[in-house]
Amino acid sequence: MGFEFRVGRGMTATVLVLFICVVAGLGEQQRVEVDDPVQDYARRINQYYKPDDPSTAELLQTVHLVRFRADFNGDGQEDTAVSDTAGWMKNEGGDWRLYLRYDNGRYTLFKQELHFHPLAIHLEQKGQARITCYHRIDMESGALVVYTLSGSEVTELNRKVMKPEGNPEDEREYQRLFGQLYRNPASEFCVLGDYLEDKNCHWEKGY
User: Fold this and answer.
1) pLDDT per position as a tens digit, 8-41
2) Going along the chain, which residue ranges are E strands?
């Protein structure tokens, strides 16, 4: 959306400054802060489930909420990524909503989603914060993709195809990036139906 603004002879500097402040304020208002990323995510997806449908209760017991807490943008704050497994492919993971944390302890929802599996993501904070994900192509190969968060977008920096199950060099790189997650998963999950009934439901490590 663009603005064409012309200052006429009768336009004072005060009015011009006021106009600029109003436009800047409109952009700032687009950043909506939340206290609890998981609760906000659950509220958003719950509107798609029909409470009067007999199959809903059963479905809600098969879908999991998954959260992954880490610093995604390199500002030193622990952010939270949230997803649900309704649309996941087991070996590929799914789409995650990113909630970036601020110094005041609150979060804002990042504009774009990030697709990853919670056992195949690596975050590097040296210099420009980089997010490395492994996206499976077939049983033997996949794409190693490096992203960064720039502005309000997920930007792809580079990608390469690798075969971690057939190429020794690729296998070593895969283990260097993601091996720790298999030993000590960073993600947690709970049953969506349980969470909707009780926000303090039990979370299990991994997924």
Assistant:
1) 333 333 333 332 233 333 334 356 799 999 999 9
2) 33-34, 64-70, 79-84, 94-101, 107-109, 114-116, 121-124, 130-136, 142-150, 153-162, 187-191, 204-205
- 194 burial (CB, 10 Å; 0-12 / 13-18 / 19+) is middle
Q: What pTM was estimated for this model as a whole? A: 0.81
- Ranges of each domain in the chain: 33-205
Q: How far is CA 35 from CA 59, 108, 186, 194, in A?
A: 27, 9, 21, 20
Q: How far apart are CA 58 and CA 76, in angstroms?
A: 40
- Work out the average pLDDT over 111-132: 92
CB 85 within 8 A of CB 67: no
Burial 72-83 (b: 16+ CB within 10 A, else e): bbbeeeebbbbb
> In whole angstroms, what is the distance from residue 188 CA to residue 38 CA?
11
Which tokens sit at 176?
A: 């260097």
pLDDT, tens only, 142-160: 999 999 998 889 999 999 9
Instruction: Go through 13-31 and write b for each residue having 16 or more CB atoms within 10 A of its CB, e for each that does not.
Output: eeeeeeeeeeeeeeeeeee
Question: Structure tokens of 203?
Answer: 């979370």
